[in-house]
# Entry
Amino acid sequence: VLRLLEAQLQDQRREHEKEMEALKNLVDAMQEELEKQQQAFLQTLQLTPEAQVEFGLQQEITRLTNENLDLKEMLEKLEKNEKKLKKQLKIYMKKVQDFEASQTMLPAERRQHDRNMQVAVQRKEKDFQGMLEYYKEDEPLLIRNLIT
# Structure
């Protein structure tokens, strides 16, 4: 048990170190970005008011262009997803139509039998989780088995 706990502790320590390294890298990247922004800001302060306005407009145009490209990319993904879903819908509608057509051809007793089979299948698919039922006198045995 002690070895298992030590192994778990070492795994957690390694994960923690990895997370810390990733966070340090992120902080470093953000510091570099902040320094770049500060230098750009200082440069804009040294410009004339007209140049500052023009620089601000260029920055805003760049930001809007990047945002526009991101939105176009997202739109393309959504359109592809829409086409895929429409194809799936057509396939499923065809299957439903085929199933309905086959149901009209079957005799009534066969359809009733199929419905009973479907209900039975639905009941078998249920999965119960979370509760354990036991007798009070079996509790020490249950605890001992859980521990071992």
Residues 119-123 have pLDDT under 50 and may be disordered. Residues 23 and 29 are 10 Å apart (CA to CA).
